[in-house]
Design goal:
Shape: elongated
Number of strands: 8
Oligomer: single chain
Strand order of the largest sheet: 4-1-7-8
Radius of gyration: 13 Å
Number of helices: 1
Strand content: 35-45%
Largest sheet: 4 strands, mixed
Distance between the termini: 10 Å
Structural class: mainly beta
Number of domains: 1
């Protein structure tokens, strides 16, 4: 699993099916990579991953960017937190690879 904060804000992940376990906070322009096993999620093995951002000018405020689905039994996933926090974060989005 890889998370890259690819714009002007920090990002982190939250794993609801893993008791809301969170990743490290990834600063703007950097990436984090960690091996996570499967065995979570529903009958199909997929689990949600909440992708969250932290406003660069108000670090005590977080916002949800999107939720992606991951099956650690099948493959890894790369997640990119994109866009800018201008206009209250209206232009943020997620890409996956």
């Amino acid at each position: 699993m890889q998370l890259c904060a690819q714009d002007n804000y920090s990002a982190f992940l939250q794993f609801p099916d893993r008791n809301n376990l969170g990743s490290v906070v990834v600063g703007p322009g950097t990436c984090w990579k960690e091996k996570l096993g499967g065995g979570y999620g529903g009958d199909d093995g997929y689990e949600p991953i909440n992708v969250l951002g932290i406003f660069n000018n108000a670090p005590h405020y977080t916002f949800q960017i999107d939720t992606v689905w991951y099956n650690g039994n099948v493959s890894g996933i790369g997640i990119g937190a994109e866009g800018t926090t201008a206009n209250a974060g209206a232009g943020v989005y997620v890409i996956t690879w």
